[in-house]
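Human: I would love a firmer grasp of how sequence relates to backbone shape in proteins. Could you go through the record with me and say what the backbone is doing? Here is the record:
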Amino acid sequence: MFIAGFPTGSLAANCYLLAPAAGGDCVVVDPGEDALAAVQATVAEHGLRPVAALLTHGHLDHAAALRQVTDAYGIPGYLHPADDYMLDDPLAALSPEFRQMLAGYDLPAMRPDELHTLAPDQVLRFGELQLTVLHTPGHTGGSVLFALAGDGPRPEVLFTGDTLFAGSVGRTDLPGGSTATLTSSLRTHVLGRPHDAVVLPGHGPQSTIGAELRTNPFLVPLLTEQAPVSDG
């Protein structure tokens, strides 16, 4: 399996390229601000053939180069419909402070010519690649994880966007965010995953589910809630 990742833009949002092996078809996950040049360099270096661009959610820092990447390679984009509006009005999903900061900024066109909607538990197949869509609203209404199943000694890999970071979770105070909803998403789609599953987040370093269950202050209390109550 081939996975390359790099931070993009002023908020250092992680963009990833995933392929069965170097020289094969690949998908681009979260092509954020100024991502195109790094995507093109990685594609050229490893002989990759992009076939799709996937968004974990619609925020500008993760989607700013979506149209540029899809245009460059003639490929479709994928996004959960709850975040679709962000492609046409990215400021609507940001905090008042960010909206003020970006006022007058020449925002990029983000909507691709071909856009497919993501559905909960949908299985995406791109040649030898197979990813399962896990709908995890809370950071935004349309946040998803992309799960690549483990294969023998290779553990499961989770592209978690801004749902789960190493040591933290995504903020919930932006339009479409909800702490209660995010907590429910974590209970449903994170707590029960294999401890060796690799977490590739939307910002910051990678981690594992086991490490997050031991140390992440947003997950540890959820484990305590689920612990059985002793009769003694």
Observations:
- The helical segments are 35-46, 60-63, 66-73, 96-102, 179-189, 209-215, 220-226.
- The first helix runs from residue 35 to 46.
- The domain at 2-226 is CATH 3.60.15.10 (Metallo-beta-lactamase; Chain A).
- The first strand starts at residue 2 and ends at 8.
